Every structure is written in C-alpha cells, then in structure tokens.
Amino acid sequence: MNDTSTPRLHRRDFVKTGGGLLALSTLPLLSGSASAQTPARTAGATGPIVEGFPPAELVGRPMPKGLELGLPPEERIGFAIVGLGDYAANIIIPHLGDTKKCKLTALVSGNEEKRAKIAATYGISDEHLYSYETFDEIADDPEVDVVYIITPNVFHRELTERAFAAGKHVLCEKPLAVTAEDCQAMIDAGKQAGKKLMIGYRAQYDPYNLMAIDLIKEGRIGTPSLIVADHHRLLPLEEPRNQWRAKKDVAGGGSLYDIGIYSLNGARYLMGEEPVSVSARYHEGSGRPEIDVEEGIEWRLVFPGGAVANCSSSYLTTNNKRIHVQGDKGEITLDPATDYFVRNLKVTDRSESKHQIEEVAISDSNQFVPMLDEMAASVIENREPKTPGEEGLRDVRIMQAIYRAADSGEEVELG
Ligand code: NAD
Description:
Elements: E1 15-16, E2 21-22, H1 27-30, H2 34-37, E3 77-82, H3 86-96, E4 102-108, H4 112-122, E5 129-130, E6 146-149, H5 156-165, E7 169-172, H6 180-193, E8 197-199, H7 207-218, E9 226-232, H8 240-243, H9 248-251, H10 255-271, E10 277-282, E11 296-302, E12 308-314, E13 320-326, E14 330-334, E15 345-349, E16 356-360, H11 368-380, H12 389-408, E17 412-413
Parallel strand pairs: 3-4, 3-6, 4-5, 6-7, 7-8, 9-12
Antiparallel strand pairs: 1-2, 9-13, 10-11, 10-17, 11-12, 13-14, 14-15, 15-16
Helix pairs in contact: 5-6, 6-12, 7-10, 10-12
The structure holds nicotinamide-adenine-dinucleotide (NAD).
C-alpha cells in the first residue's frame, strides 16, 4: 500500500490495498514487536515492575480499550416484534441483542407454538405475548415503546395504525405499504398520535453503501451520470416466505416491491437526487399458475441533471444484488450491494487514462444494529429518524408509477 494508491476515505476502521484487503482493526497487532511491549522481569518478583503494570496475582484491571457499553436495560427502548417469520426470527431478533439502545420486550404472532418457543429463548414472559386479535392490548404494556412490523406488505398499514392507536412508535419493513395512499395514511396517523414512523431501509445504515454515497459526494468518480442496479432471485414456492410474495392481494406487487425496491432506493440515495420520469417494461414470466404478480420488470429513471438509472428486478434468475455507478472520472461497484452479510465495494479511477481499481474493506459493517439503534435514538432524542415514513412513501409512489409506465408503454412523469 502506498499513499498514492490509498484513497481519501474518512473512516478509520478500514484500509484498502492495491492487491487485497486489510482490516484496520488488525493493525495494532502488527505494529511494534511483543518484546518491545513486555518489560524485563526479575525472577520471583511479584509487584509491578513499571507503574501501571499488573502484579503476578489476580487483580482488577482498567476497562478494555474500545469497549463501548450500551445503555443499561431500564434505559433501553423496548421493541415488540410483529410477525415472527424469516426476517424477524433469523435476522432482526438476534441482532436486537447486539444493539446499544434496544431490547426485545414483546412478541406478536398468529402461531402460538412458534411464539412460545421464541419467547422462551429470549426470556419474554407470557404477559408480553400477543396474537393479532389481542395486539391492541399492547397499549397497556409499558415495556413496549416501539412496534416493529415484519409481516407481509398488505398488513403494514393496518398494523401501523393499530400501533399508533395504542400509543406506540412504529418501525415498519419495506415496502412501507402497497399504495401511496396507504403510506400517507400511516404518516398522518403517526403525526396525529405524536409518534415516530421509520422505514426499515437497512441499506441506508450499511457502512459500504454509506461509503459509496460519501465517495460520490466527494467527487471520486466525477459527475455520476449512469446507474445500473439489478436485484434478482429465484422464488421457490415450497418455502412459506415465498408463498405470499406470489400473491398480489398480500404482497401488493411482485419482484419490484420485494427486491426491486433496493435498486430503486439505491439509485435515489447514490444519485442524491429524485427522478423526474420513468419508463418500464415487464419481463415474460415463468407461467407458474400460483403467481399473479409480475416476476420480472426493468425500468429507466431519468434524474433532473440528465443522469439515468437502468434498473431491474426479477424472480427469474439467480441471486444478483448489484449496483454500479458511472461518472466521468471513474466508477463505483457495489456487488453485492444489499446482501445481509457480504458487501463488496470497488472504486475504479479512470481519470487521466488511469485504470486503477481499489477495493474497500470495512471491518465492522453490520447494518441491522445501526438501523435498530437509530429507531431507538429517534425516540430517546425525540427527533425524526434518518429514514422516516416519507422516505418509504417516495419509493412506493415511484413503484406505482413504474407499473403505470409498464402497463401503458409510455414514459410517466414523476411529480
Ligand atoms: P415470512 O413469510 O417469512 O414472514 C411473515 C410472517 O408474517 C409470518 O411468519 C407470519 O408470522 C406473519 N403473517 C401474518 N399473516 C400472514 C399471512 N397471511 N401470510 C403470511 N404470513 C403472515 O416473510 P419475511 O421474509 O419475513 O417478510 C416479512 C416482511 O419483511 C415483508 O414486508 C418483507 O418485505 C420484509 N423483509 C425485509 C427484509 C429486509 O432486508 N429489509 C428482508 C426480508 C423481508
């Protein structure tokens, strides 16, 4: 690694090298030899040799370096999880334990047996367990501050309104709702109740995506004028989590609402502008009779400065979660851009006929923990969350316009 190949990235917890990746957190181990740090000892000595060094007996020592303790339990924000499916049980509930400001305090599910097993694992007692029928009783549960809705899309509005009526704040999964009208009703209900509404856009808390945003703003690739964003995966219908996704009356839309939303949201936050028009076309589906949503779709967003984003989503090809941004000095590729655990960020400098590729490695790149802590912080500090309901509304409005464009074959202006 040399200075000219080191990009000016302002995060202290990563470095990149021409030929590979190196997590900065390993560097202190590499600098200085063990002998340089270990003082000479006299045989039989028990007391400290140098002021501050420990004696050869069991003693208390200073707080470990870098330890950032979270809030004590009584100051943490209590979360009720609604819908104990794949994302809730495998990803969100386990990550709540890694946060600094949140705690799991209640569970809401229509499956009593599953709920009891998860409750036992996380130490949630019976009085904090709810069904969809008894959910409104959560109003009297002082342990619950935030209701996190992780059900199929069509239920997001109803559950949000019930949570606000119960006097709770709401974190809601994407898409915020199935129509812009529903999104607006949720936003209005939150304002009327004086409670926060946040959309769970984890990618906007992901250090890799945040780094890409910073690099583009710093001008590392010049003026961005082309984005290519694709999100694809297969939809095996034997898996329960995929079954409702095949049904328009439960999912609200197809691959676009499910994973294309990452292409759309990514194009918006990486370009840093709102698109002014969209054209779109459907892909031919697989013909499976159980599926009544669009399986594949591609769309083209035009931004005010003339930049374009060519995006796609489908259930017809294997996993793809890639976003590529091209400017007049270089390009940035996030591939995968929106995976739960693996993200890769590549920056190519093409200025002055160079073709210099740099890869970024970020040692602590958890995206779920900062997202959950942001919800809690917005409640503690009584401020708008970074990704409020309005951010979810913008995407739903554009996704509805994408469908109108694909249905009509006409370019649709975005207001
Ligand atoms: P899932 O099918 O695994 O879980 C949905 C849960 O909702 C079920 O387990 C059940 O408890 C409950 N539910 C209530 N009524 C239901 C019904 N009629 N049909 C099916 N389930 C019903 O789905 P999932 O993958 O966990 O997705 C849930 C929500 O989370 C969706 O809005 C999805 O878009 C969102 N999600 C977000 C991410 C992300 O990365 N942000 C990832 C996956 C899912």
